[in-house]
Amino acid sequence: MPTQNMDYNSLNSNILKLNSNIRYAGVYHIGNVQIFEKIQKGLARLFDKEKTKDTLIHEYMRWKARKNYSSEIGKPMYTITKYEKINRLTIPLHIKALLMVNTESKLEPNEIVPDVIKLIKKYSDDPNYTPKKVYLG
After folding, report:
1. Which of 30, 50, 81, 112 is the most exposed place for a label (fewest CB within 10 A)?
2. Kind of pairing between the strands at 86-94 and 97-104
3. Considering Cα of 115, then 83, then 69, then 124, what sign does the dihedral take?
4. pTM for this predicted structure
5. CB within 8 A of 86, min separation 6: which ones?
6. Average pLDDT of the chain?
7. DSSP structure string for 75-98
8. What would the mean pLDDT of 48-75 be, rounded to a whole number?
9. Residues β-bridged to residue 39
10. 2 assigned to some structural domain
């Protein structure tokens, strides 16, 4: 698969277009500690920006911990967490970035996983790329 510079803002926008029950798409880029996020139009944030950043940082740390077992059980591909109010899908973009997608609880994340993965491949990332523009909100 050829690599190109990933435009996180476009990726997030296109993820939101997949289904109106997708609330949030955000990328945490560890290389320069930036968050690129989009929220479905007309929806209120559940977390303020500081809490969102904290959540993404913790998700990234958990993702790194999961990789400790990859020699025995294989590389982690994605995780789904169900909460009372939302569902969360977490997918690594590359060694420096993690994608988090939140959906309404009525949307089963398994329904969108294949389409999100297709978008990630479409926007495949060069591991040496450092995003230049930040968009929050």
Report:
1. 50
2. antiparallel
3. positive
4. 0.83
5. 23, 46, 102, 103, 104, 105
6. 84
7. ----EEEE-SSEEEEEEEEETTEE
8. 87
9. 24
10. no
The answer to whether residue 131 sits within a structural domain is: no
Give how many domains the chain has, as a whole number: 1
Beta-bridged to residue 92, according to DSSP, are 98
Across the range 90-116, mean pLDDT stands at: 92
| Helix, coil or strand: residue 57 | helix
Strand partners, 102: 24, 88
Q: What is the CATH number of the domain that holds 22?
A: 3.30.450.30
Per-residue pLDDT reduced to its tens digit, 19-32: 999 999 999 888 76
In which domain, by residue range, is 20 found? 8-122
The radius of gyration of the chain's CA atoms, rounded to the nearest angstrom, is: 14
Residue 81 resides in a domain: yes
Residue 129, in any domain of the structure: no
